[in-house]
Amino acid sequence: MKALIRREFWEHRGAFIKAPIIISIVLLVIAIVGYIIGLVFANKTGSAEIVHKGINELHNLSEKQLSTFWDVQLISTSTLFLFVLFIVLFFFILGSLFDDRKDGSIQFWKSLPISDSETVLSKLITAMIFVPLVFTAVFAAYMLANMVLTSILLMFHGQNPWTLVWVPASIVKGILTMLIGALTQMLWAMPIYGWLMFSSSWSKRRPFLFAIFIPLLVAVSWYFLNVVTRMNFVQVEMFKWPAKFFMFSALPYGTNAGGSGFQINLGEGGMSLIDIASNLKGSIMHMEIIYGIIFSAVFIALSIWVRRYRNTT
């Protein structure tokens, strides 16, 4: 199993490791370029003194206001990381059992003393555990780099970075919230991952089209069945449930404690990191998660069965 997981990282190094690193570099470059452009613009417009006075006023902000600012930084950045993580895993799982049939390498892997169950589960474990851990580690490194960069810029303007950055910024709570968010994302996305795995194993040519249009066809058929049999034109539950799972998977911080609504409320008087973490833990206990896990288990079992008997496209 360990060798199979290493194989996945070796084959998808760009998506699993380079993608979060590139995001971090781009965000840091944007921050630096934005700061330089701001200084140049202030000097050209003669407003440099106003900017300097504004920076000097930072020490008048309360610790709560500074904490809110850093909470927003942590949540918004980790939201971006989790969204990209979902996109990466979506396409990884979609091609996980199709690509080796497409290039013929499945014959080599089947010649090894490795069961189809081990192959499928190794891909699933990689997607649900190890890749989120990599993204979380890179997120933590980015936030530390961002805080160091901010500290340097503040010292350049004669400010104390300890009271403005390191005391109010809850970096540990931010990392823990990111981990809980990744766990929440994994649980809400399990039915999606299970269906994508089955689509990857079953589809002969276009797993993406199979994964999207089969559920869409079922939902549309169900809708028109309700229209014809009950004259119910407003029954759209068959569209709402898949959309809900996709939304909570892509943006897990939006799940509330009941798992029945979508809300993100940051800022003064809004939710803190602790509130968001509490909401995430509450949404994990929702019954829809249980139904999703059962759905996922069924289709993962079907994926293993199909892979056992399908060697080519």
Describe the main β-sheet briefly.
none
Intertermini distance: 25 Å
Count of alpha and pi helical runs:
13
Shape field: globular
Quaternary = single chain
Based on CA atoms alone, the radius of gyration comes out at 24 Å
Structural class: mainly alpha
Mean pLDDT score: 83
- Number of domain units: 1
The unreliable regions are 257-262
Number of strands: 0
* Share in β-strands: under 5%
Task: Please describe the topology of this protein.
Elements: H1 2-11, H2 13-45, H3 48-56, H4 63-96, H5 99-102, H6 106-111, H7 116-156, H8 161-166, H9 171-202, H10 207-230, H11 237-250, H12 273-284, H13 287-309
Summarize the structure.
This protein is mostly helical and 313 residues long.
What brief labels describe this structure?
single chain, 313 residues, mainly alpha
What does this molecule look like?
The protein is mainly α. The protein has one domain (2-309). The protein is built from 13 helices and no strands. The chain has helices at 2-11, 13-45, 48-56, 63-96, 99-102, 106-111, 116-156, 161-166, 171-202, 207-230, 237-250, 273-284, 287-309. Helix 4 (63-96) runs parallel beside helix 9 (171-202), helix 9 crosses helix 11 (237-250) and helix 9 (171-202) packs parallel to helix 12. 28% of the residues are buried.
